[in-house]
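We close this part of the discussion by returning to an individual protein. The encoding preserves chain order, so positions in sequence and tokens coincide. The sequence in question and its structure tokens are set out directly beneath this paragraph:

===
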Amino acid sequence: MIRASQGLDWDYTLQIPHDPIAPRIARRTLRTILDAYDVREPADTAELLASELVTNAHRYAPGPASMRICRDGKLLRVSVWDTDPTLPGLDAYEPPGPEQEGGRGLPLVRMCADDWGGFALGESPYGLSGKLLWFELGEG
């Protein structure tokens, strides 16, 4: 549970290199932040869903990524940016068959998050492009 007595919103960003251990480091960083703020109830779900998004960023994007974790009121919001501008089919995504090795991450996010989505980032004059996928989990 997110403790109301703490009362302050917070926001952290982790820069993630294109490295095979990046999903594990992202999970541990998220867990450390949530433990520090005594966020207990959505912590396991947040860790699972963040791991899925960071794993997809590593698997499908050629460059670095970043993960943003914030508390906004009673919402925990996690977003993952990567360098690949191709959005997965967010609305029509079907889980894979039992014989397929991958493809279960976004159905898990869809099933477990209170809200989720994503959008492609157009080329900016500062070189930022790619996509952002996010999810939210509420208190209690």
